[in-house]
Design brief:
single chain; about 120 residues; alpha+beta; Glutaredoxin; four-stranded mixed β-sheet; 4 helices; globular
Amino acid sequence: MSSSREITLPNDPAEAVAALRTASTETDVVVFKKSPICPVSTRAEFEFKTWLKGVPESSSTRFAMIDVIAEKPLARGLTAELGIEHQSPQALWFSGGDVVWHDSHGALTASRFAAGATA
């Protein structure tokens, strides 16, 4: 799934965190981490994509997806840089330069994403 809202992160975790912090000063950025071989990740990815389809084109919210197997150093390093325990699937919501919400597994539903960082 590629769109004009999707951002590509640097492979270096520290650089990725810096890029996310910078980008999120202008608009919210959601990072979705998933495993391509995990049924829980598959369900969470479906929920994430369902939410994305409902985000209006006029929205400036951006997102990044990380495959925790193919991009293992980035996936684990990103959360380590942030002081957050690595999970998969996992979402990290950045706004104003900070992580304002993060959760994993069954909590990753389309309605939870729709509630945004305020819920």
